[in-house]
Amino acid sequence: MSGGVEIPVRVVAIEQATPTVKRFSLAARDGSPLPVFSAGAHVVVAMDADDRRIKNPYSLIDRSADGSTYRIGVLRTPQSRGGSVFMHDRVAVGSELTITMPVNLFPLNRTGRKHLLVAGGIGVTPIYAMAEELARQSVPYEIHYAMRDAAHGAFADELVARHGDKVRLYRDDAREVIAVDRILPNQPLGTHLYVCGPEGMINAILAGGRAAGWPEENLHAERFLAPPGGSPFALTLAKAGITTEVRGDQSLLEAIEATGVDAPFLCRGGACGQCETKVVSADGELVHNDHFLSDEEKASGAKIMTCVSRLQGRELVLDL
Amino acid sequence: MTIQFKNETFRDDFTFSNSPEAIHRFPFPFDKDQYMYAVNIEQHMPGPAKSATEFPIDIDEHYVSEMRDRALVLKADPLRCQSQPHMITAEWDLVELLMESMAKHYPEHFTLTRDGDRWHWINRPLEIDQTFTFGDAATLPLPPMEYVTRQCQGDFCLLDQRNDNLWMDAGIVTTQADWSLDFDMGMNFMEWHGPVPLAHDMGVFDRALKFLLNLQQGRPVRRLNWTMTVNPRLDTSPENYHAWGIDRTTVTPENVGDKVHLRVELQALWRLPRSNAIVFSIRCYLIKMEELVTIPKWGRRLHRVLRDLPPELVDYKGLTRFRDTTVDYLARHDDGAPTSPGFFPD
Question: Cα–Cα distance between B176 and B181 in angstroms, integer?
Fold first, then answer.
């Protein structure tokens, strides 16, 4: 329950959007309407695999007009810990999952005069919701959506249908790149930029914004991380007096939850800071993968974000 | 449960008083015999039956008279209600939160019927029957926030969340303990808490802000705050200081039991779904000293809290001119017996 209120849901439709992306429609199992959410929000989906419970954050694409369903988009990433593969291979229409209430760590800045939405690949999911919201409010916006090739543009057709000439598509296979140095310097004052996509793309877009003299407060990115796997290590929870093993394909937070300890979390993507935990001792090197702790905090070794970070070494002792 | 609404005043002749039931449900804010700041935030879960926290939005016997007083304040000073244009979505979120909660928990008094975006709202105590289109401000006689908060006890601030901070970008504030919405409009969380003594050094606001930035939809929180007010005046605003500041000099040993009031704010915070804004509600409860001492535990405890209050807090809360007289009065109701833990009467 540390992640908040949970909603039991059932998968009511699955759409193979591209060779590697599926869109899932989720409805509350008790038939009640799902909560309204703000554009940019995500939910954490809990999946019960054979030997463990996997929890991954997914941005919300939309909510049906009658409130009965949410849509999420999932990219199959075989090298990760198994959540997206589980969603692709094991989840069918009728499957039961659990989601958290929506959480928004990537909100629109409502004081913005204009909004530039930039998406790469599966990063389009929150951007899709933001574009809908901006269209509803009749605020100026542009969408720049980069994809591998036409077949991998999971939302290209829908975006163009809904937003017309506000959408600009870029295909890697046609060597089309988002011309940061041409787009960003010529925006009106008060424009906000939002980028979601692969890490390298986010960094390039943000660097372009800074180079064009944009204020830091007007540059927004969602850097959801899938928790990377690693080598197994021993974990001791000092207060609970529990010792366990964190497997290579398990996140630290998932291993804590598997012991029955109710550890804090919210985004499970290294962004929100809710799972910050004190390190009592570490026999090995802390691998900090989050975007929350400062470089100094990471170097001090006093804290760790359990959702995406782990130990490369023998044993980690946490103040839990 | 049908509430018998009182006809009373919070100005001029000050006829406000609490019934015995209202005294018993007063949200007494001290669970120990001493007071110091803490980030005393807890989940806004339903409290005991008939308590002020039984329902998310508390409506009580003072409802009709408080709404009349709010209308008088707004008539004299429209700047008590302000909203920046980007807060319109949050305003509608607030309409939904308040109407849903009031209709669900007080069905004898309020009814909400929703048919898609067509909403029908009935407020029997204030004799209002309104049909409107949710999301279309032109279908209400007033802007959405002002419309609904003229019908709900408590002050409300809508806090926009951006740049890892909270910004006071809308609100209606007519029952405040000496702070001004007009002054604080557009400020961020750290700015509007600037005047509070001691707490900054304790890191209270850094921790509170971090907590609130991650406040979750469906998981509202609350805290109690308190001060003291001479005469049962809801509108103790800086704008109105000329009218009430002098009251602090009028307390005598003869009138202290009737004039001096403990003023408690039940503050609650909700994450709003459409706007991702936070609504901060500040619901004011007043109780006279002579009403408070009818609960022996509270008389003993308030005596000890006030007697031992740090001087910075005595000044900040504006108690300097009448604290000693009040402590003397309460001392007569403190036999030195131990008090039980917790807020509630024995």
Answer: 9
